[in-house]
Specification:
78% of the residues lie in helices and 0% in strands. Helix 3 packs antiparallel against helix 4, helix 3 crosses helix 5 and helix 4 packs across helix 5. It is globular. The termini are close together.
């Protein structure tokens, strides 16, 4: 899929496609990177309180990863998903 096509997708679609591909292909590197960028994305989307909690609780990060395509957080993570999907055109 071309980057232009990815840009037209919603944050939720980008999230779902990225996470589904990573899970299906055992790409734990991507999933780990997602967990690492969620706190910064939450801070960028105005949810500073979530950032402190996430850094101390892995279970919160895992939960966030599964819902990280929604709302402002999904929008903040759009570039991350687009970069990943453009490197994996079969996703």
């Amino acid at each position: 899929m071309e980057t232009d096509q990815l840009q037209e997708m919603s944050a939720q679609e980008l999230h779902d496609r990225s996470v589904r591909y990573a899970v299906r292909h055992g790409d734990f590197g991507f999933l780990w990177e997602l967990l690492k960028v969620i706190p910064a994305a939450e801070a960028a989307s105005g949810h500073d309180g979530e950032t402190a909690n996430d850094l101390t609780r892995v279970s919160a990060l895992l939960s966030d990863a599964m819902a990280s395509g929604e709302g402002e957080l999904g929008e903040a993570l759009r570039p991350f998903y687009i970069d990943y999907l453009s490197k994996h055109p079969d996703a």
